[in-house]
Structure formats: structure tokens, C-alpha cells
Amino acid sequence: MKHRIVVLGAGYAGVTAAGRLAKRLHPGDTEITVVNADADFVERVRMHQLAIGQDLKPRPLSEIYAGTDVTLRLARVTAVDADRRTVALADDHGTDEIAYDTLVYALGSTAADHGVPGVAEHAYDIAGRPSALRLRDRLAHLAAGGTVLIVGGGLTGLEAVTEIAEARPDLRVALAARGGLGDWLNGRAQQHLRGVCDRLGITVHEHADIARVEATGALTRDGREIPAQVTIWTTGFAVHPIAAATTLAVAETGQIIVDDSMRSVSHPEVYAVGDAAIAAGPGGKPLRMSCASGIPMAWQAADAIAARLTGRTKFPKAPLRYFNQCISLGRRDGIIQYVTADDRAKPALLTGKLAARYKEIVCAGAAWSMSHPVLYPVRRHRVVATRSEIRTGVS
Length: 395
What we know:
- The protein is an alpha/beta fold and about 400 residues long.
- Helix content is about 30%, strand content about 25%.
- Helix 1 packs parallel to helix 8 (about 290-310).
- The longest helix has 20 residues, at about 350-370.
- The chain is globular, with a radius of gyration of 22 Å.
- Belongs to the NADH dehydrogenase family.
- Its cofactor is FAD.
């Protein structure tokens, strides 16, 4: 009987894991099924571009997995029973349940409102394609002179505010950052960022902790009112609640706790990658939710699964570390902040058009690798471990 591998989610981490497993394992011994609600691979790092009206190249998952021996199942995951090793699904035809021998949990994350009143009712987000398209429609109908407020001074907020300000110079665009503007960057990068905001006419509200979002704008905890016809919430991400409802060991964030091979510490037949997992990086610091973390986490999980199934006691260690932070500031400017392994800013950086080109190469390269998950020639190994060995953690 074939070993059943189910991958939940087809974002950067899920697509990478499934493709790498297909390259490592012989199809005569394994069945790899990818479950995803969307028919396309979504370039999440480009949602700010989609929101402002740019068209992204469609990347159908059916084409991505054509000829790879990976089965695609279009459905929503509604529950996981980690003890029975089953996944509950729902689609337009009803509900279903599938079983697995090994599970790769890569359901990712969505926008986090941090319990701030009014966010759900009045704010937009760009955490996924449906929400980015809703914002796109709203911005398209916003007349000249309209006011837009982006809440959140992290990477997503900076990319969104500069993209909107550049594409729509007829709008009054503002950014509310809880801390200083780009205060995690080095001094030269911060200076460049301020210059870009000034050039694009962006009003920056620093040290603005938003306490409430209303239909007419936002209110800070110190009583400041920031008017906005459109408020965009980019203050971080939260994982889907499915894992927390299982018997899997999860952190307070709801992320699955994994070891250095991305294997669940409580259920050895479950691996978690990307935003859905909490894993230690250099110095024991948790990896941040990002494409830069998710892809190497997927490499690690796939290599560990393949090694254990094929009877090998050792497997390669993926580079679970950081090299740079790539920030697009519109289509013609950017910042490449080089960082230490644990994500602290170094003195070195790139700015301007060169940085914008660098960021585009990174994004395009990631999308290309997602669209070509199995590159030949490949060496596919035969499965030798039994199901009981996998379930009990024996290599």
C-alpha cells in the first residue's frame, strides 16, 4: 500500500514542500495530495500591487502540478483530527474526509486585528487575494482628493503605502506606525525611507498606537484622530485556528510547535511549515512569518520526510537564517537591507532603482520556482520505512 502524504495549503511553503517531496520520493510508493481552496498559486508578496490595480500573471495549480504525480484537491480544510490522522474538507459539492500517513500542515496565516475595535467592520487588508481585490475595487472608486490611511509600519505597510502613493498621486495617503518610521533598519536606510515618503507626499504618523478604527478614520490611544475614507490594516498576521482546535501541541500564537526538522513535537507523523509553524532560527529566536522563512522550512520538512521514509538516518540541513530584507517602495525605488542571521540590520544596504530591480528579481525568482516544482533530472528514492515506524518517530 502506498504511503499517503497530504499537504494542506499551496502557498510558498506548501507548494515548495509538495514539489520537493515529488522529486525525492518514488511515485510507486507514495501518494502526494495537495489540498488548497484556491485554484491558483497566489503571489502573496505582490498583494499590494494587486490592490492598486496591477494585474498579476495567473499561475494555475493544475498546470504547476501537471506531470509531477502530485494530486491537487480544491477544497477548504475545516478540521484536522491528528489522532485519527484525517482531514475534513468542504467544497462546492459538499463535505468529505481524507486520511494521511504523513501530513504537511502549511495553511499559512491571515491578517491579525489584535483585538482592536472596528478593524473587522471598517478596515481592509491585503493578506490574501480576495481581500486585496476588495481593496482594489474600493480604491478604484475613490475620487481624487480622497484620504487613505495604512496602519502598520512593517514591511507590508511600507510596501502598501508607497505603492498606493506612487500609483495614485491624486490621493492623500498617510501611514500610522506604532514605533518610529523603519526603526529596525539602519540609519542610512531610515533616511532613504523618509526621503521616499517625502517625495511621494506621504504623511507619516509615528508612535501612533491605534485604539479604534471607525468609518471615518482611526483614533490613537493618546487621543489623536487620523481621518481616512479608506483604512488599510497591515499590523501583522495570525494563523488559522484549525491547528489550535486539534490535539497538536501549539504555541500561544496557535502555531504548531516543531523540532529542527519541522516535525510536530507531539505527533511525529505531522510536519508544519511556513506561518503555521513556530520554529527556532539562529540564537533560538523564532523565525518570523515570511516567504524568507517558509521556503527553507519547507525544504527542511520535505528532506526530513524523504529521508525517514527511505531509511536514511541523516538529511540535509536547510539554511534557516536571514540574509536581507527586500522592501519595494513603489515600482522604481526600494531598500535592500542586509541583515545578520537572526535578522538584525547590518550597515550594508542597497537603495533606489537598483534595490527595486533586486526585489523584482527575488519575487520573480520565487514565483518561477513555485511554477516549476519538479525539475528533471531527479532522483526518486523508494520507501522502506513502515507506517508504524513513521508514526512512532523511528527513522
